[in-house]
Amino acid sequence: MSNTTLKTISTVLGISISTVSRALKNHPDISNKTKQRVSELANTLDYEPNANAIHLRTNKSNVFGLVVPGISNYFYHSFIASVEEESRRQQFSLMILQSGDDPEIEMLNLKLLRQNRVSGLFASVSNSNKQIDAYLKLKEADIPVIFFDKVPDIPGCNRICVGDAEAARLSANTILQKNKKHVLAIFGDENLLITKKRLAAFMQAIDGKINVTVVHANSAASAEALTLENLLFKPDTVFCMSDEILAGTMKAIQRNSLKVPDDIGIIAISNGFIPTLYHPEITFVETSGYKLGKLAFNSMMSCVKGSTFFHDLTTQPVLVEGGSL
Amino acid sequence: MSNTTLKTISTVLGISISTVSRALKNHPDISNKTKQRVSELANTLDYEPNANAIHLRTNKSNVFGLVVPGISNYFYHSFIASVEEESRRQQFSLMILQSGDDPEIEMLNLKLLRQNRVSGLFASVSNSNKQIDAYLKLKEADIPVIFFDKVPDIPGCNRICVGDAEAARLSANTILQKNKKHVLAIFGDENLLITKKRLAAFMQAIDGKINVTVVHANSAASAEALTLENLLFKPDTVFCMSDEILAGTMKAIQRNSLKVPDDIGIIAISNGFIPTLYHPEITFVETSGYKLGKLAFNSMMSCVKGSTFFHDLTTQPVLVEGGSL
DNA sequence: AATTTTACCGCAAACGATTGCGGTAATGTT
DNA sequence: AACATTACCGCAATCGTTTGCGGTAAAATT
E strands of B170-292, at which residues? Predict the structure, then answer.
């Protein structure tokens, strides 16, 4: 049994295709008896409407594109999970593509998305201007584009980001509130925009009230090494800007067999998974890919529904208390 | 500028749609001059063929479906990344759906996939027979189904799995080789096929040579609790069947401030990420989602190309030495 | 009995791309 | 000059679904 179509049903029942179509959609023109017969046969024949035909006719694909540098990243895949969840709920499908930060692949991906007439696109982009232009072309073709996380630094586009400054501020205030006096603060690569934002906000919130040692790590391994070095100066708290850094720091803590939180306090900005892997669980400020996804999806829906207003949003980070501080 | 079609080009150039179509496909019937004019205009108008129209006509969607319980899982998203990579390379798109282990959603997903006339389906299924039937219906509709990871326990379907037995055997042999004498072995839900396979192979390899306590945990939390309980009996080694269990076990280890590997040895079957988060890094037998993805994709392609031969494959696991044993 | 209303249902065009078949003009062949 | 060949190109049907419009019978109204 290959694929049942309206025509199959219509010929079996000796009625027209239009009648079958209307019967299945509960159109008032069709008698109950006919509706009954049609829907029964449709069931036994496992009829499913051909989405391609519908999309062709309506010129709407009900498919959203989603482009990320790579799926294998906790932040992105929680984002993806979130968007997928909402999409399904709203009868949309998701076409997921990864660029691998390769401009050529990125262009191919865009072509594919256009061929599939996606109804909208979620994109986290490697910051090359040439690519951005290509994305903006989609907007001209009336395909809404929601940039998230890694967004282009130009106005007039929809941007949904985590609240970097707010997350750093919240972390700093939590540290102050706990009466900590000497913080080892480990940030990421100092050239990254995200690092700059978080560092500035963090220092501003600390406001010289307590002693802070700032270092920069660009990998879990270097975070581990830097933590080990600086443990010699007996900080009472370590702040980690990201999950990757937290992972490195925790290895150093374990290596030195330090008791958390008695020997040392830990607080991090995190997506929420890594902190649950330790005992006690790490206190963290959540920058949830999941929430970001919800936000991005809402933004997308309002675009799809015709809003021409540009969204420039950030998620509100939340403190999740573990037992590490 | 909305959407350019063949008709747009044909009317602008004053030629027929068929000619435009053939020109773009470099058909020999069309003169070079015409081809030139057509492709130039197509470029400036940013023409992209409408995938829906093509799929409708050819009755082939060139879209693969991919169903997993949840994306937010290191194993699955490395699998997804792998399959996406290959799909793109072979001009296929990927429609990813998560079931959340909810049978109802699973049925809705299947419906969606059928509506979209996917060319094939990768599925990891929660083991309910009713659902499996639905999947098998796809096969009847000539849609190849590749089950991976969590596969149904029935013959006559394509199954790509990690080498469960081999991984368990390798773990057991490693434990024996390290001269351990008392193992706490934590397995997953005892109804799952994967648990049965790993347990059987593990016990067979141990062959009564040393003392093994077997327990079953169905979450990280229960693994933690079970580990805590059984630490009272002073095992010299803990074997964890999966990453989730490993995470729970490590929290118990940390809670009791045990030194690894001096106080206790740890070995796990893992996808490779979690073990690197601890110091010392956990020795594990790798079951790579990435490799599994490549294998599954190859299997899919041979099905798509018409092979009716059933694939029942397993990946070869590898021991990765950390410092935990 | 003639007319209007109601209840059902079918025709045909449209969405965009592909392709077998047929057609016309220009060129080549005898 | 008559015919055959070549080089180009268009017509129309098709994939599956939707929908405006029109049509025909039966039922209701006068």
Answer: 182-187, 211-216, 237-240, 265-270, 283-286
